[in-house]
Amino acid sequence: DREKVITLALIHDLAEVIVGDITPLDGVPKDEKRKQEEKALATLLQGHPRSEELQSIWQEFEDRTTPEGKFVSDLDKLDMGLQAEIYEQDF
Fold first, then answer.
1. Residue among 31, 19, 29 nearest 62 (CA)
2. Residues 6 or more apart from 12 whose CB is under 8 A from it?
3. pLDDT digits (tens, 9 = 90+) for 17-64
4. Looking at the chain, which terminus has fewer C-beta neighbours within 10 angstroms, N or C?
5. Which domain holds residue 19?
6. Domain total in the chain
7. Over the Cα atoms of the chain, what is R_g?
């Protein structure tokens, strides 16, 4: 579903606007990170007419429960790896 993939790609990092980009090096347990991101997303989408739908789609990315969620999650990991390679070349 192309539309879902695009939506996932656009919203998957939305919660980071509030909580920041929490990495494993930050020492925040995964369940705590998830709670913070869920709360942030709910805050950002509060009052939005598609709030529940968008939160559900975000869950698909986080849980990798659909082909689209898995695809965008894999793209996100690929992006991270490519960005690390670029940083390594620059320094």
1. 31
2. 58, 61, 72, 73, 76
3. 999 888 888 999 999 999 999 999 999 999 999 999 999 999 999 999
4. C
5. 2-90
6. 1
7. 14
